[in-house]
Amino acid sequence: MSRLKLFIPVFVFMVMAVMLWRGLYLDPRTLPSVLIDKPLPDFELPRVEDEALITKADLPDEPFLLNVWGSYCLPCLQENPILMAAKEAGVVPIVGVNYKDKLNLARLWMDDNGSPFDFSIMDADGRLGINLGVYGAPETFIVDGNGVIRYKHIGVIDYKTWDEEIMPALAAVKAEATL
Q1: Which of 69, 151, 157, 163 could join 76 in a cystine, given CB atoms 3.0 to 4.6 angstroms apart?
Q2: Where is 159: in which H helix or E strand?
């Protein structure tokens, strides 16, 4: 029995080595969301633009992007031109979630940089973000016309991400909606 105890550290080392080796091949930008194929959480929050209360019932009844952003978020500023171009082209409705921000700063950011959003929800305390499983801004969800989360992207959306990830996922959700 005492000889067997000598092999315990070797066994533990081997298990840890296999786990670390496997970790080398994981993409750190892909964090699975338990909310995929689940409905958006219920909420009642003010709109950034005019403080009118918004609920889940006020969201578009067609596939849309739900973009989590903040005035403090430099990557949000980087992805703004892409989202603005999508809005101008009428590609998809875009709803913003202003995450853990101040109302006056959010409005100022939208005035200075333009708003790609049909409207933006003020999530000052971050409760909606927590219910969505948000790690931080920016994060973007594709939501179908029934209010079900179908896709989640963590991080900035650049042109490559837009063309290779967002648009194909959006096209798939839109195609399912027409069936």
Answers
A1: 69
A2: helix 159-161
